[in-house]
Write a structure and sequence with these properties.
20% helix; Immunoglobulin-like; five-stranded antiparallel sheet; 1 helix; alpha+beta; four-stranded mixed sheet
């Protein structure tokens, strides 16, 4: 009798976990708009931290920052990375190579505004940039 009761309790707990786990998981999947988004290139130990602002100096949420990386022998290996900014206008690239043939040109954009930054990784392996977005010229 006691084993049947234990079995029913164990079964009820298992069913509760199976039913509730997806609900709890879905509630925790909401991104934190204040967390700094990070994308890792996985090809070195250099990094670039960004703050994206508008023409009044206010942070820009969900601006896209992209970079094309050509690296390795004769720059034959290529990689494109993109990350969006947090509510504070912040984003980070990690795992960047120490050397590239021509440095890295970062482009930021949102709607009809854009801005850019250049990094020579051989000189500034841990770079920090502020990019001001301006209206695209037509």
């Amino acid at each position: 009798m006691q084993s049947a009761t234990c079995f029913r309790i164990a079964l009820a707990c298992t069913l509760a976990l199976v039913v509730c786990a997806p609900i709890l998981h879905a509630q925790n999947d909401k991104p934190d708009p204040n967390a700094v988004p990070v994308i890792d290139g996985g090809i070195g130990n250099c990094s670039a931290d960004f703050t994206v602002v508008d023409d009044s100096g206010s942070p820009v949420y969900d601006a896209k920052i992209s970079v094309h990386i050509a690296y390795g022998t004769w720059s034959l290996r290529k990689m494109d990375l993109e990350v969006g900014t947090s509510a504070a206008g912040k984003a980070r690239f990690t795992g960047l190579p120490k050397r590239t043939k021509q440095g890295l040109f970062f482009q930021a954009s949102q709607d009809d505004r854009q801005g850019s930054a250049f990094d020579d990784l051989a000189k500034t392996c841990k770079a920090q940039f502020t990019i001001q977005l301006e209206k695209k010229e037509q």
